[in-house]
Amino acid sequence: MYKNKFTSYLKTGLFAASITALVAVVSFLLSSYLFNFPVEIIGESRDTLYLVLIAGVSFIAVFISSIIFYFLQRFTRKPLVYFILIVILGLIGNAVLAENDLLQQYKMTAHIIHLIVAGLAILLVPQFSRKKQS
To answer: Which chain regions cross the lipid bilayer (predicted)?
Structure first.
């Protein structure tokens, strides 16, 4: 059902992470327009969202999730169920951190982006990890 080679999961991770990072950046830009806050490319304040940070963290999270999915499918009987649980736990943790650390104007945007990234990880990583039917 799923691919067996670790390198195929790395390729899956690169592809899914690239798509997710792009969607996260577009969501951030749309949210900044809707909620009327400035878009900053990079900075050093912990309570602000930055474009490069959103792209990088989204990419890394989904790439690592593809590696986690490899080990789950390798060593468990229900990899998809465990994968969804892990992603949801990560989503909850990120939502709590965003609620505690960010300025009020960025909180809704952070929650939206967290939902989008988690949803795309759940959708794309297992989908791209499937064996092709011959």
So the answer is: 12-36, 48-72, 79-98, 110-128
